[in-house]
Amino acid sequence: MAETKKPRLIHKVVLFPFFILPRPLKRLMVYLWTCFWFYILRLRVKETTRQVQKVFPKISKKEARKIVFDSFYNLILVIFEYSYQAFNKKHLYKHTEVRNSQKLDEALKGERPVFLFTGHLANGEIILSRVCYEGYQLHLIAKRVGNAFLDSFLFDLREVAGLIHIPPAQALTQIIEAMKKRAPLIFIHDQFRHPPKGVESTFLGLPTYTNPSLASFALKNNALVMPVNMFRENDKTVVDFEDEIPFEKKYETDKENIAHMTQVYNDWLETKISKRPGEWMWVHRRWKKSKK
To answer: What is the enclosing helix (H) or strand (E) of 115?
Structure first.
Protein backbone atom coordinates (compact mmCIF):
# COMPACT_ATOMS: atom_id res chain seq x y z
CA MET A 1 0.00 0.00 0.00
CA ALA A 2 1.35 3.43 -0.92
CA GLU A 3 2.30 5.62 2.05
CA THR A 4 0.47 8.95 1.78
CA LYS A 5 1.44 12.26 3.35
CA LYS A 6 -0.20 15.60 4.03
CA PRO A 7 0.31 18.46 1.56
CA ARG A 8 2.31 21.46 2.70
CA LEU A 9 0.29 24.48 3.86
CA ILE A 10 1.92 26.80 1.31
CA HIS A 11 0.77 24.55 -1.54
CA LYS A 12 -2.78 24.47 -0.22
CA VAL A 13 -2.81 28.26 0.05
CA VAL A 14 -1.56 28.68 -3.53
CA LEU A 15 -4.05 26.16 -4.95
CA PHE A 16 -7.11 27.09 -2.89
CA PRO A 17 -8.41 29.73 -5.38
CA PHE A 18 -8.27 27.12 -8.16
CA PHE A 19 -9.89 24.51 -5.95
CA ILE A 20 -12.97 26.52 -4.94
CA LEU A 21 -13.90 27.51 -8.50
CA PRO A 22 -16.94 25.60 -9.85
CA ARG A 23 -15.98 23.31 -12.72
CA PRO A 24 -17.65 25.48 -15.46
CA LEU A 25 -15.95 28.63 -14.16
CA LYS A 26 -12.69 26.76 -13.88
CA ARG A 27 -12.90 25.78 -17.55
CA LEU A 28 -13.71 29.38 -18.49
CA MET A 29 -10.62 30.58 -16.63
CA VAL A 30 -8.52 27.95 -18.36
CA TYR A 31 -9.88 29.06 -21.73
CA LEU A 32 -9.09 32.72 -21.02
CA TRP A 33 -5.56 31.89 -19.85
CA THR A 34 -5.06 29.80 -22.97
CA CYS A 35 -6.21 32.68 -25.17
CA PHE A 36 -3.79 35.01 -23.38
CA TRP A 37 -0.92 32.57 -23.97
CA PHE A 38 -1.88 31.72 -27.56
CA TYR A 39 -2.88 35.15 -28.90
CA ILE A 40 -0.99 37.67 -26.73
CA LEU A 41 2.13 36.08 -25.19
CA ARG A 42 2.51 33.80 -28.22
CA LEU A 43 5.29 31.95 -26.42
CA ARG A 44 6.38 29.00 -28.64
CA VAL A 45 3.15 29.20 -30.66
CA LYS A 46 4.78 29.46 -34.10
CA GLU A 47 7.45 26.88 -33.31
CA THR A 48 4.93 24.39 -31.95
CA THR A 49 2.53 24.95 -34.86
CA ARG A 50 5.32 24.26 -37.36
CA GLN A 51 6.14 21.06 -35.47
CA VAL A 52 2.53 19.89 -35.64
CA GLN A 53 2.49 20.58 -39.38
CA LYS A 54 5.65 18.52 -39.83
CA VAL A 55 4.04 15.60 -38.01
CA PHE A 56 0.70 15.96 -39.83
CA PRO A 57 1.65 17.42 -43.26
CA LYS A 58 -1.82 16.84 -44.71
CA ILE A 59 -3.67 19.10 -42.29
CA SER A 60 -4.16 22.83 -42.79
CA LYS A 61 -2.42 25.51 -40.76
CA LYS A 62 -5.76 26.28 -39.12
CA GLU A 63 -6.11 22.67 -38.01
CA ALA A 64 -2.53 22.65 -36.73
CA ARG A 65 -3.18 25.80 -34.71
CA LYS A 66 -6.30 24.17 -33.25
CA ILE A 67 -4.18 21.22 -32.04
CA VAL A 68 -1.67 23.61 -30.48
CA PHE A 69 -4.42 25.64 -28.79
CA ASP A 70 -5.99 22.44 -27.40
CA SER A 71 -2.60 21.29 -26.16
CA PHE A 72 -1.99 24.60 -24.36
CA TYR A 73 -5.51 24.41 -22.93
CA ASN A 74 -4.86 20.90 -21.63
CA LEU A 75 -1.58 21.96 -20.03
CA ILE A 76 -3.20 24.88 -18.19
CA LEU A 77 -6.12 22.67 -17.14
CA VAL A 78 -3.59 20.29 -15.60
CA ILE A 79 -2.43 23.15 -13.36
CA PHE A 80 -5.99 23.93 -12.28
CA GLU A 81 -6.74 20.25 -11.66
CA TYR A 82 -3.58 19.91 -9.62
CA SER A 83 -5.53 21.51 -6.77
CA TYR A 84 -7.41 18.22 -6.28
CA GLN A 85 -4.23 16.64 -4.93
CA ALA A 86 -3.86 19.25 -2.20
CA PHE A 87 -7.34 18.75 -0.77
CA ASN A 88 -9.85 15.95 -0.14
CA LYS A 89 -9.12 13.08 -2.52
CA LYS A 90 -12.86 12.62 -3.23
CA HIS A 91 -12.52 15.45 -5.74
CA LEU A 92 -9.71 13.58 -7.47
CA TYR A 93 -11.87 10.45 -7.61
CA LYS A 94 -14.73 12.45 -9.08
CA HIS A 95 -12.69 13.53 -12.07
CA THR A 96 -10.63 10.38 -12.72
CA GLU A 97 -11.30 6.80 -13.76
CA VAL A 98 -9.17 3.64 -13.71
CA ARG A 99 -9.75 0.96 -16.35
CA ASN A 100 -8.42 -2.57 -16.67
CA SER A 101 -6.48 -2.50 -13.41
CA GLN A 102 -6.98 -6.28 -13.28
CA LYS A 103 -4.27 -6.51 -15.94
CA LEU A 104 -1.84 -4.82 -13.57
CA ASP A 105 -3.01 -7.07 -10.72
CA GLU A 106 -2.33 -10.19 -12.78
CA ALA A 107 1.07 -8.88 -13.84
CA LEU A 108 2.07 -8.21 -10.23
CA LYS A 109 1.14 -11.77 -9.25
CA GLY A 110 3.81 -13.13 -11.56
CA GLU A 111 7.51 -13.53 -10.90
CA ARG A 112 8.72 -10.94 -13.40
CA PRO A 113 9.31 -7.27 -12.58
CA VAL A 114 6.55 -4.98 -13.88
CA PHE A 115 7.47 -1.87 -15.86
CA LEU A 116 4.79 0.60 -16.92
CA PHE A 117 5.34 3.22 -19.57
CA THR A 118 3.44 6.22 -20.86
CA GLY A 119 4.02 9.77 -22.11
CA HIS A 120 2.89 13.34 -21.52
CA LEU A 121 -0.76 12.48 -22.20
CA ALA A 122 -3.87 14.23 -20.78
CA ASN A 123 -3.30 14.78 -17.03
CA GLY A 124 -0.80 12.23 -15.81
CA GLU A 125 -0.31 14.18 -12.59
CA ILE A 126 -3.69 13.47 -11.05
CA ILE A 127 -4.26 10.08 -12.64
CA LEU A 128 -1.06 8.59 -11.23
CA SER A 129 -2.15 9.85 -7.81
CA ARG A 130 -5.47 8.08 -8.31
CA VAL A 131 -3.63 4.83 -9.12
CA CYS A 132 -1.61 5.21 -5.91
CA TYR A 133 -4.82 5.69 -3.92
CA GLU A 134 -6.00 2.39 -5.41
CA GLY A 135 -3.22 0.72 -3.42
CA TYR A 136 -0.34 0.47 -5.90
CA GLN A 137 3.10 1.61 -4.72
CA LEU A 138 4.17 3.32 -7.92
CA HIS A 139 7.78 4.36 -8.49
CA LEU A 140 8.28 7.14 -11.06
CA ILE A 141 11.66 7.86 -12.63
CA ALA A 142 11.73 11.66 -12.96
CA LYS A 143 14.24 14.50 -13.14
CA ARG A 144 14.04 17.25 -10.54
CA VAL A 145 13.09 20.80 -11.52
CA GLY A 146 15.65 23.60 -11.41
CA ASN A 147 13.36 26.14 -9.70
CA ALA A 148 13.21 25.34 -5.97
CA PHE A 149 9.57 26.35 -5.47
CA LEU A 150 8.30 24.56 -8.57
CA ASP A 151 10.34 21.51 -7.62
CA SER A 152 8.82 21.30 -4.14
CA PHE A 153 5.36 22.14 -5.49
CA LEU A 154 5.42 19.46 -8.19
CA PHE A 155 7.15 16.66 -6.32
CA ASP A 156 5.55 17.19 -2.90
CA LEU A 157 2.04 17.10 -4.37
CA ARG A 158 2.83 13.95 -6.33
CA GLU A 159 3.96 12.34 -3.10
CA VAL A 160 0.74 13.26 -1.27
CA ALA A 161 -0.84 10.12 -2.72
CA GLY A 162 2.25 8.00 -2.06
CA LEU A 163 4.02 8.21 -5.42
CA ILE A 164 7.72 7.45 -4.97
CA HIS A 165 10.28 9.31 -7.07
CA ILE A 166 13.48 7.85 -8.42
CA PRO A 167 15.97 10.50 -9.60
CA PRO A 168 17.89 9.44 -12.73
CA ALA A 169 21.21 9.76 -10.91
CA GLN A 170 20.15 7.04 -8.46
CA ALA A 171 18.02 5.07 -10.88
CA LEU A 172 19.90 1.77 -10.93
CA THR A 173 20.02 1.27 -7.16
CA GLN A 174 16.43 2.35 -6.53
CA ILE A 175 15.05 0.41 -9.50
CA ILE A 176 16.63 -2.75 -8.08
CA GLU A 177 15.09 -1.99 -4.67
CA ALA A 178 11.67 -1.40 -6.23
CA MET A 179 11.84 -4.68 -8.14
CA LYS A 180 12.71 -6.49 -4.91
CA LYS A 181 9.56 -5.01 -3.33
CA ARG A 182 7.48 -6.14 -6.36
CA ALA A 183 6.52 -2.52 -6.97
CA PRO A 184 5.63 -1.31 -10.48
CA LEU A 185 8.00 1.22 -12.05
CA ILE A 186 6.82 3.97 -14.42
CA PHE A 187 8.89 5.20 -17.34
CA ILE A 188 7.92 8.42 -19.15
CA HIS A 189 9.02 7.31 -22.59
CA ASP A 190 8.51 10.39 -24.78
CA GLN A 191 11.79 11.93 -23.65
CA PHE A 192 14.63 13.12 -25.86
CA ARG A 193 18.12 11.95 -24.96
CA HIS A 194 21.28 13.03 -26.70
CA PRO A 195 23.48 10.38 -28.31
CA PRO A 196 25.44 8.28 -27.62
CA LYS A 197 23.16 7.34 -24.69
CA GLY A 198 20.06 8.17 -26.72
CA VAL A 199 19.29 5.80 -29.58
CA GLU A 200 18.46 6.93 -33.10
CA SER A 201 14.73 6.50 -33.70
CA THR A 202 11.62 8.17 -35.05
CA PHE A 203 8.79 9.72 -33.09
CA LEU A 204 5.57 10.70 -34.80
CA GLY A 205 7.35 10.03 -38.07
CA LEU A 206 10.23 12.45 -37.48
CA PRO A 207 13.85 11.51 -36.73
CA THR A 208 14.99 11.97 -33.14
CA TYR A 209 16.86 10.28 -30.31
CA THR A 210 15.10 8.41 -27.52
CA ASN A 211 16.12 7.28 -24.05
CA PRO A 212 16.56 3.47 -24.28
CA SER A 213 16.38 2.87 -20.51
CA LEU A 214 13.00 1.12 -20.60
CA ALA A 215 14.06 -1.42 -23.22
CA SER A 216 17.50 -1.86 -21.64
CA PHE A 217 16.15 -2.56 -18.15
CA ALA A 218 13.38 -4.76 -19.56
CA LEU A 219 15.90 -6.93 -21.41
CA LYS A 220 18.32 -7.25 -18.50
CA ASN A 221 15.60 -8.08 -15.97
CA ASN A 222 13.14 -10.05 -18.15
CA ALA A 223 10.52 -7.51 -17.15
CA LEU A 224 6.88 -7.39 -18.18
CA VAL A 225 6.35 -4.09 -20.01
CA MET A 226 2.80 -2.74 -19.88
CA PRO A 227 1.73 0.41 -21.75
CA VAL A 228 -0.49 2.85 -19.87
CA ASN A 229 -2.81 5.08 -21.87
CA MET A 230 -4.15 8.31 -20.39
CA PHE A 231 -6.87 10.41 -22.00
CA ARG A 232 -9.82 12.67 -21.28
CA GLU A 233 -13.36 11.38 -21.62
CA ASN A 234 -16.68 12.74 -20.29
CA ASP A 235 -14.89 15.42 -18.25
CA LYS A 236 -12.66 12.81 -16.60
CA THR A 237 -9.04 11.81 -16.95
CA VAL A 238 -8.95 8.07 -17.64
CA VAL A 239 -6.03 5.69 -17.14
CA ASP A 240 -6.23 2.46 -19.10
CA PHE A 241 -3.81 -0.42 -18.49
CA GLU A 242 -3.21 -2.25 -21.75
CA ASP A 243 -1.79 -5.67 -22.62
CA GLU A 244 1.91 -6.40 -22.24
CA ILE A 245 4.18 -5.57 -25.16
CA PRO A 246 6.47 -8.65 -25.39
CA PHE A 247 10.18 -8.05 -25.85
CA GLU A 248 11.14 -9.04 -29.40
CA LYS A 249 14.64 -10.40 -29.93
CA LYS A 250 14.76 -9.97 -33.69
CA TYR A 251 18.46 -9.20 -33.96
CA GLU A 252 21.73 -10.81 -32.97
CA THR A 253 22.94 -8.19 -30.49
CA ASP A 254 21.39 -6.72 -27.37
CA LYS A 255 22.13 -3.22 -28.66
CA GLU A 256 20.08 -3.80 -31.81
CA ASN A 257 17.21 -5.38 -29.87
CA ILE A 258 17.14 -2.49 -27.38
CA ALA A 259 17.01 0.02 -30.25
CA HIS A 260 14.22 -1.99 -31.90
CA MET A 261 12.08 -2.15 -28.76
CA THR A 262 12.66 1.54 -28.05
CA GLN A 263 11.10 2.19 -31.44
CA VAL A 264 8.24 -0.23 -30.70
CA TYR A 265 7.42 1.76 -27.55
CA ASN A 266 7.62 4.99 -29.57
CA ASP A 267 5.20 3.52 -32.10
CA TRP A 268 2.69 2.69 -29.37
CA LEU A 269 2.79 6.27 -28.11
CA GLU A 270 2.37 7.55 -31.66
CA THR A 271 -0.95 5.75 -32.02
CA LYS A 272 -2.28 7.36 -28.83
CA ILE A 273 -1.06 10.86 -29.66
CA SER A 274 -2.40 10.66 -33.21
CA LYS A 275 -5.84 9.75 -31.88
CA ARG A 276 -5.97 12.70 -29.45
CA PRO A 277 -3.24 15.12 -30.55
CA GLY A 278 -4.62 18.02 -28.52
CA GLU A 279 -4.00 16.11 -25.28
CA TRP A 280 -0.26 15.67 -25.79
CA MET A 281 2.24 18.27 -24.54
CA TRP A 282 3.48 19.62 -27.89
CA VAL A 283 5.36 22.44 -26.17
CA HIS A 284 7.67 19.71 -24.84
CA ARG A 285 10.90 19.74 -26.92
CA ARG A 286 10.87 16.17 -28.24
CA TRP A 287 12.91 16.79 -31.40
CA LYS A 288 16.01 18.59 -30.19
CA LYS A 289 19.21 18.84 -32.19
CA SER A 290 21.75 16.32 -30.99
CA LYS A 291 24.97 17.55 -29.45
CA LYS A 292 28.06 17.03 -31.56
So the answer is: strand 114-118
DSSP result, 33-100: HHHIIIIII-TTHHHHHHHHHHHSTTS-HHHHHHHHHHHHHHHHHHHHHGGGGGS-HHHHHHTEEEE-
Q: Three-state SS for 226?
A: strand
Q: Which residues pair with 229 in a beta bridge?
A: 240
Q: Alpha-carbon torsion 205, 271, 31, 282, what sign?
A: negative
Q: Where are the domains of the chain?
A: 9-279
Q: pLDDT digit string (tens) for 216-246?
A: 999 999 999 999 999 999 999 999 999 999 9
Q: Cα separations (Å) of 189 from 65, 117, 146, 168?
A: 25, 6, 21, 13
pLDDT at 206 over 90: yes
